């Protein structure tokens, strides 16, 4: 475990409308915030299309229809994002996993709150333990 680093933050609230791409909207919010580290606080809404890579599967699955967003969590850094989503279909069946950047079209709305962490920088670097590029958190200034 790395040592948790403190940071002040600025909340941003916004809404994405029908047809917008969820990940592209989050990336725009990240740019507007002029942040180097952002976390998703909450998201409620609906999708007509979503691409999810499920745990321990190499290929993503595309879902088309009408789905409620029941959860969206993750981190955003200058070069990418690591987002997990849970969705529910009209019968209440849930699906979840890693939200891919392509193919996530909003149905009616996505109401989102993010937190730009003003004293942190997120990056992703190779991790010998996992074999993946994992989150690295650095402090941008002293917060004493």
From TrEMBL:
Record domain PPC: where: 6-138
Pfam families in alphabetical order: PCC
Taxonomy, superkingdom: Bacteria
InterPro entries associated with the record: PPC_dom (IPR005175)
Protein name (database record): DUF296 domain-containing protein
Source organism: Paracoccus aurantius
